Amino acid sequence: MPETTSDQGRVRSLDKQFAPFITAGELDAAIQRLAEEVQAKYQGRRPLFIGVLNGAYFFAAKLLEHMPELECEITFVKVASYIGTSSSGTVTQLIGLNERIEGREVIIVEDIVDTGNTIAHIMGALQEHHPAGISVATMLFKPDAYSHDHPIDHVALRIPNAFVIGSGLDHDGLCRNLPGIWRIIDEHA
Ligand code: IMP
After folding, report:
1. What is the pLDDT of residue 93?
2. 27 three-class SS
3. Is the residue at 10 inside a domain?
4. 81 lines ligand 1 (CB under 6 A)
């Protein structure tokens, strides 16, 4: 389990140390701003939010909590990737998607977009179901790491290209329960 050291409020997880980066209050305020934007955009369109497990559970809950006036649905998927035939390359399968999404407005809910590979695969898999539109809402976005062209529509906070944990984000499965966001300390800096 994460161990909080007394010096400078750092947290140790396995062999790594993390320092406070974004407080829970700052994060919640950013999510609330984003929720208001999404709520206004999708008013009257009854969108389906699709949270990507495991990491998005925290952000999805907070996001929807802050948009009580929007008529909407939410579901969650897990992503499994495997190498398909030589013509298809990597195939992404969405596990747990039982809703009919043809003709619907879909919003993918992610904890963090880094290179963008994951979200690109998810969008490809969802396109096959012919939704009316797909957009992305992410809690954190690392623009310097992003390597795709598709715009990330709704971002709560943009962060530098560093490994972070907390609020659903894990370090080898640990630390999702830390409040706020913590940034890895580069021992070589
Ligand atoms: P991408 O495919 O490179 O955009 O990475 C997406 C996934 O990698 C996220 O859904 C996270 O599971 C994981 N990830 C990327 N950056 C971080 C980070 O800084 N902390 C924890 N997980 C991360």
Report:
1. 85
2. helix
3. no
4. no
Q: Residue 32 belongs to a domain with what CATH number?
A: 3.40.50.2020
Pocket test for ligand 1, best of 11, 53, 114 (most atoms within 8 A of CB): 114
- Domain hosting 121: range is 24-181
How far apart are the C-alpha atoms of 35 and 50, rounded to whole Å?
15
Question: Does the C-beta of 166 come closer than 6 Å to ligand 1?
Answer: no
Domain count, the chain: 1
User: Of 170, 141, 163, which Cα lies nearest the Cα of 154?
Assistant: 141
Identify which of 165, 99, 169, 109 has the alpha carbon closest to the alpha carbon of residue 134.
Answer: 109
Q: Is residue 1 in some structural domain?
A: no
Categorize the per-residue pLDDT at 84 as very low, low, confident or very high, splitting at 50, 70 and 90.
Answer: low
Q: Is 112 in the pocket of ligand 1 (CB under 6 A)?
A: yes
- The 10s digit of each residue's pLDDT in 132-149 is 999 999 999 999 999 999
- Summarised one tens digit per residue, pLDDT across range 171-188 is 999 999 999 999 999 766
The token duo for 23 is 């407080």
- HSE, side-chain direction, 13 A CA sphere, residue 34: 26
Mean pLDDT for 63-77 is: 97
Residue 123: band (very low, low, confident or very high) from pLDDT cuts 50, 70, 90 = very high
pTM for this predicted structure? 0.93
- Between CA 160 and CA 169 the distance in angstroms is 15
Structure tokens at 12: 């140790």
